[in-house]
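Feature request, filed as a ticket because there's no other form

It would be nice if the structure record came with a short human-readable summary line next to the tokens. Right now we just get the raw output. Example of a typical job, pasted below so the devs can see what we mean:
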Amino acid sequence: SVASLCGSPASAGLFRRAVAQSGAASHVLTADAAAVIAEMFVAELGADPRTATAEALVDAQARTEAAFASDSGLRAAAGVDNLGIIFQPVVEPTILPVAPQQAVRDGASADVELLVGTNLDEFTMFLPGRVDEAHLERGLGRVFGEGAAEAEAAYRSRLGADASPTDVWLAVKADEVFRQPAIRLAEAHRGVHWMYLFTWPSSVGRLGSTHALEIPFVFDALDAPGVEPMTGGGAPQALADAMHGSWASFCRGDGPGWDAYDDARRATRVFGGLPSDGGADVTTVDDPLAPERQVWSARA
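Raw output as currently delivered:
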């Protein structure tokens, strides 16, 4: 949503800074695909969307998502991309006349300072089951084609040669849906921008540094209701202090406190540390997880 606002001419001049957390500008629908999805949504709703209750709208949304998720033919007919996410920004003449990533590359929001980043284990929240070797092989082939073996080797260099197919696939999907699109957005943005990577792991199940886990740290709200079931308890206040302070400094116009991102150095603030930096809680790393980024760059 934030990246789409950066690419929309309707929002030009309305803000000076933007923070895109676990979101970028790569995932959009065509108007034709959106029309097919909207028609099915209204059919599932069975009522006028302008007067339906919030509960009915949410239920119809869930049924529409389930219908597309279970029918690859339906997704293909609608022109939905292989991520299968059916509710996305729509490229149409009024609000998004050009896909937002292209608009940003063309100079939209060049006067907007941008803070963008993702979490290391974004996709653990979205994969309910386990992945076997056959599923992993098919998935890597779909995503990387002839580069599948090279890509798997890049991920296993970080995860370990004995990483399970599930672990590898979760890392690939985190990159496909979240991290690599965020990097593409930074590369496209013509103004000043900063990059971060959140890596602190929850102790709950296999969540790791899952999608949305950074939010209570950013807002210095570790004690808020509903946070502990996500973090597992024991979340470090010092990390929340660091993130909240960086975001507040950025909002004031003083920058977040580390060097801006560029395509040469790729300076990235890592909140939670990486094994390669000795596990420091907060550090700046140039081009973290470079082998994985490079296999995606080769694919582009």
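Something like this underneath would help us a lot:
Strands lie at 17-21, 29-30, 90-91, 113-119, 193-198, 267-271, 282-286.
The first helix runs from residue 2 to 7.
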